[in-house]
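User: Some background: our group keeps a shared notebook of sequences we're curious about, and every so often someone picks one and asks for a predicted structure to add to the entry. Today it's my turn. The entry only has the sequence so far, pasted here. Could you supply the structure so I can complete it?
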Amino acid sequence: MAPIEKSIDAVDARVAQLGRDGRSIDYAAIERQFGELAAAIEAAANLCALEATAIEADRIDVRGEASSRVGKGIGTYYTMTGPVDIERGVYRRVGERNGKTGPSPR
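Assistant: Of course. Here's the predicted structure to add to the notebook entry:
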């Protein structure tokens, strides 16, 4: 289930049970739950935005030097809501058979 739908369902469920039985409410727990749900939405938004920046090209220019894609790999980006893993191209400078590889530049 997508984070937004999950959040809406969780809020609906909490609201339906609040104050119905006369017991005291641990509102700090409710706020923690809502915070976790909001963080999941933000993490999903970060994932979408970072995936949109991924370069899908066979050759790119990195600081004035041609590089060619040699494969794909998982890149981890550290956001305020935690790490986000995306698949991205891995490139090597043209002419360097065993040269250093790196992700597509941002």
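Suggested note for the entry: The chain is about 40% helix and 30% strand. The CA atoms of residues 36 and 89 lie 31 Å apart.
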